[in-house]
Specification:
single chain
């Protein structure tokens, strides 16, 4: 089994030869037809780990995750912590959620998330957790994030439905109720 990485002409030629069965006893390790760009890992991995994959020609998340640990450890400057970090990140369910075209560095993403959450009302942040996450991971200028936060804050907050509230209370689902109330306007709450 041969695992080909990258999109260079040599990599494409190797895929073509191995995929056609031109080399006896060698098989191409096939990846899904639709792959996730490697750049989606950038905000989740330390820069040195992401750059390690990028420098060695990896172009997709699937190429990186399909590489055995022993193969990853053969990359120059790769060690067990790199492999652990990569495996931990791809195990997270939200790693491939919303792709960001121009991602910020992971350290910047944490600061940007704090900046954005500081400007959003609780209800807006609770209604749009995926959007907040994607905006924080992007490299959109802070001034633009401020304008987005203002626009989201100005959206009308839907009223809490008493039936939903009663059913959640009756079921004893306090966390679900708390989340619901954090995204809706109730008579006795100031959101």
């Amino acid at each position: 089994m041969v695992h080909v990485v990258g999109s260079s002409p040599l990599a494409e030629q190797a895929r073509s030869l191995l995929g056609d069965g031109a080399v006896n006893a060698w098989q191409l390790h096939k990846l899904p037809e639709t792959t996730t760009p490697l750049s989606t890992l950038r905000p989740h991995l330390e820069s040195r780990y992401y750059n390690l994959l990028d420098r060695h020609g990896f172009t997709s998340v699937e190429e990186a995750t399909a590489t055995p640990d022993a193969g990853l450890l053969q990359l120059r400057n790769a060690g067990p912590r790199f492999v652990e970090a990569l495996r931990a990140i791809v195990a997270e369910p939200d790693t491939r959620k919303m792709a960001v075209t121009r991602p910020a560095d992971i350290q910047d993403a944490h600061q940007r998330r704090h900046h954005l959450l500081g400007r959003l009302r609780t209800a807006a942040a609770a209604r749009y957790p995926d959007l907040v996450d994607a905006l924080a991971r992007s490299s959109i200028p802070l001034a633009a994030l401020d304008k987005i936060a203002t626009a989201l804050n100005n959206e009308p907050i839907p009223p809490a439905d008493p039936t939903v509230t009663l059913l959640l209370e009756t079921a004893g689902e306090q966390q679900i109720l708390d989340h619901y109330l954090s995204t809706h306007q109730s008579d006795d709450a100031d959101i």
